[in-house]
Write a structure and sequence with these properties.
about 325 residues, 8-stranded parallel β-barrel
C-alpha cells in the first residue's frame, strides 16, 4: 500500500471509530500532493515546527488565541484555483460572491481542490474559507427570502460566511439562525437554527469528519466555543452604522468590518473630502466590536501593521505575504506559516 492509500485508510478507520480525523490528514498525504513534490508545500517560514492543529478552522484557532489573522481573496474560482491556493500564505481565503457569480458547483470544486492540494503549512486540512454572500442584509424580508443561500454555501464545506450591508440586529439574527442546526446549543437572543439534515455529506468530507461530527461542530463561534463556523458582518453604510453596536452584539457573530468604500458611497463623500466623517464611522464600528468581544477587520499595510494590531485590529485585509509575516513575527505567533 502506498503512502497516500495508507493515510486514506487510517482516515477511514478514525471515522469508523467515531473519532475526528486529524485536520492535517486529508485525501492526500503531506508528501503526496503536487505542490509538496515541487518543494513549496508545507515549507515553514516561522513558528514552531512541532505545532499540532487543534481545530478544523485555522482562523478560529488563531483568533481564540488573540492572534491576528490575514486573508487573501478569490473573486471566482474552481478546482484548479483551490488546489493552487492550498499552499497560500494567508490564514484564510475570502471567496467573494457579492460581486461574482453565485456558482455552487464552482465553490464545491474549489473546496475539493483545497483538500487535494493540502494540507497547509500549519498542518490544517485546508485553509479556512469565508464566503461573501451574494445578497445584502438590507432588511428582514431580504434575509428570509434568501436564507437558503446560507445553507447552500455552508454545504460546500466553507468555514464561514460574510454578510454585506448588515443593517440591523434583526437581520443578523436571521443570518445566525440560517448558519446553525436546530440541535445546536441554545443561547439567549438566538432562535432555533435552520440548517436541515441531508446537506451535510459533502461538507463533512471536505472537513474530514463523519456526518454526525460535522453537524456537531458546524456551529457559530464564539457563541459555541467548539464551533468551527465564522460569521462576519460588513457594517458598511450609514444605515448599518446606526445599529453597529446592536448588530455586533448578536450572539453568533464572529467578526465585523466597516467597509470604507461602501461607507463613502452611502454618505456620498470621497475619502479625501470627508476624512473625519469616515474616521468616526470606523471608530464606531471598532468600538462596537470591542464592546461585543469580537474581532475587527481592517486594512493593514507595511507602515501601519503594528499600530493597527495595537489598536485592536485582529483581521488584516489582504495585505500580502510579506506584511502578514511581519504581523506574525510582531505577535510572536507559534503556529507555523
Amino acid at each position: 500500500m502506498n503512502t497516500r492509500a495508507l493515510v486514506n485508510a487510517l482516515s477511514v478507520v478514525a471515522i469508523a471509530a467515531g473519532g475526528d480525523v486529524l485536520v492535517g490528514i486529508g485525501a492526500e498525504s503531506p508528501a503526496a500532493g503536487p505542490a509538496a513534490q515541487s518543494g513549496t508545500a508545507n515549507e515553514v517560514h516561522g513558528g514552531d515546527a512541532s505545532y499540532v492543529p487543534t481545530r478544523i478552522n485555522k482562523a478560529i484557532e488563531l483568533l481564540a488565541q488573540d492572534q491576528p489573522i490575514y486573508y487573501t481573496q478569490v473573486n471566482d474560482g474552481g478546482y484548479d484555483e483551490g488546489k493552487a491556493l492550498a499552499d497560500t500564505w494567508a490564514d484564510y481565503i475570502t471567496y467573494n460572491m457579492e460581486h461574482s457569480p453565485f456558482d455552487m458547483n464552482a465553490l464545491r470544486a474549489f473546496m475539493q481542490g483545497l483538500v487535494d492540494g493540502g494540507p497547509t503549512r500549519s498542518g490544517h486540512r485546508t485553509p479556512a474559507v469565508v464566503a461573501v454572500l451574494p445578497f445584502g442584509g438590507i432588511n428582514e424580508q431580504v434575509m428570509w427570502a434568501n436564507y437558503w443561500m446560507v445553507e447552500q454555501v455552508l454545504g460546500t464545506g466553507v468555514h464561514g460566511v460574510l454578510l454585506a450591508h448588515a443593517r440591523s440586529p434583526d437581520v443578523v439574527r436571521v443570518l445566525v439562525q440560517a448558519a446553525r442546526y436546530p440541535h445546536a446549543p441554545e443561547a439567549a437572543g438566538v432562535d432555533e437554527g435552520l440548517r436541515g439534515n441531508g446537506g451535510q455529506g459533502f461538507a463533512a468530507r471536505i472537513w474530514g469528519l463523519t456526518n454526525a461530527e460535522y453537524q456537531r461542530r458546524a456551529d457559530a463561534w464564539p457563541l459555541n466555543p467548539e464551533g468551527e463556523i465564522l460569521i462576519g458582518l460588513k457594517i458598511e453604510d450609514r444605515h448599518a452604522l446606526q445599529n453597529a453596536e446592536a448588530s455586533a452584539a448578536v450572539p453568533g457573530v464572529g467578526f465585523a468590518e466597516w467597509g470604507p468604500g461602501d461607507m463613502s458611497l452611502s454618505f456620498n463623500v470621497s475619502r479625501a473630502d470627508a476624512p473625519q466623517l469616515l474616521a468616526d464611522a470606523r471608530a464606531r464600528v471598532l468600538a462596537a466590536t470591542k464592546r461585543a468581544g469580537i474581532p475587527f477587520l481592517n486594512r493593514v499595510r507595511a507602515d501601519d501593521i503594528e499600530q493597527m494590531i495595537d489598536e485592536g485590529v485582529r483581521i488584516g485585509s489582504n495585505p500580502g505575504a510579506e506584511v502578514a509575516d511581519h504581523g506574525r513575527r510582531y505577535t510572536n505567533r507559534r503556529m507555523p506559516w
